[in-house]
């Protein structure tokens, strides 16, 4: 569901303001340090109740203020509207309302507006640690498999309990049994959801690579976090001595990873920097395409500083792809001329200019 309007107050350097967005393409330009990434971050915050830039609340709240608030109206002509409000005050719990009702978990936010973000750190997906890749995989699993968040919650709760017991050192092993049982059941489900998602996603990524005029064909090998031939309960039993020595559980879905291969070789080892970036664009765009194909749900795409990431040819391919999606896109650029000529004249496009945190619509 696209954002129709947002109201921002005391978020980073952004002035207190209300913005009306296009349901399709929105281009935001402004000098370095004007507030473009902060605007992308505020939209992302509204979609999941957290930032992609910082986990420290203090750095997000406007420096001279004690808290920020964000408010959005989402929906399109054919669908029901939703109103989301988030208020964060220093040293206080988050207050989140959907349609006037307080909610306890920010997870509910993510179901309203599936939001994909491409910002400088997204490009760590291939070369960075497995956390990024698990987050990538689980964004999709969360949206296509409604049981995932509950199963994941049960798994992590049992993992935490097991690790607490392991840290006690000399333990009565019978105390571990219920947690091991719970972990084995939930791990098998998580493994199945992730494996199914990745297998379905690979052809979509390859189709998108083709539509971005790329000749590479990729494959993804999924590692579930423990040996593929052994059931998880046996793994937990066999690794108990090592787990006790270290005080934590070495193997399991919390250690899952994906490795991306191009012509049988690992992408992070053979692709150029530019090729990696376009591959990462394709991987993110594929998540939205797959969700739309499977469940008819459209995602919102937030893309920060596209011109810094892609050369003109790749930018043109990505912009043409985005234009055909008929989804909401918010793109930021330093120089509007680096993207504006790449869109068709008849595209429903809205332009904004940011200066010292004030975002103004440009005619
Ligand atoms: N909590 C905060 N309160 C006030 N100002 C902040 C806060 N956090 C960051 N800033 C400032 O907000 C400004 C805008 O930052 P932002 O990253 O949004 O800029 P940008 O337009 O994306 O810049 P660039 O093009 O360089 O990426 C910066 O000058 C930054 O120092």
What does this molecule look like?
- This protein is α/β, with parallel strands linked by helices.
- It has two domains: 1-114 and 298-363, Rossmann fold (3-Layer(aba) Sandwich), CATH 3.40.50; 117-297, RecF/RecN/SMC, N-terminal domain (Glutathione S-transferase Yfyf (Class Pi), Chain A, domain 2), CATH 1.20.1050.
- Helix content is 42%, strand content 21%.
- It has helices at residues 36-48, 57-60, 107-112, 130-144, 148-167, 177-211, 232-238, 240-246, 267-270, 273-295, 306-309, 312-325, and strands at residues 3-9, 17-20, 25-30, 67-74, 82-89, 95-98, 101-102, 115-118, 218-223, 257-262, 265-266, 300-303, 329-333, 349-355, 358-362.
- A hairpin with a 2-residue loop joins strand 10 and strand 11.
- The mean pLDDT is 94.
- It binds adenosine-5'-triphosphate.
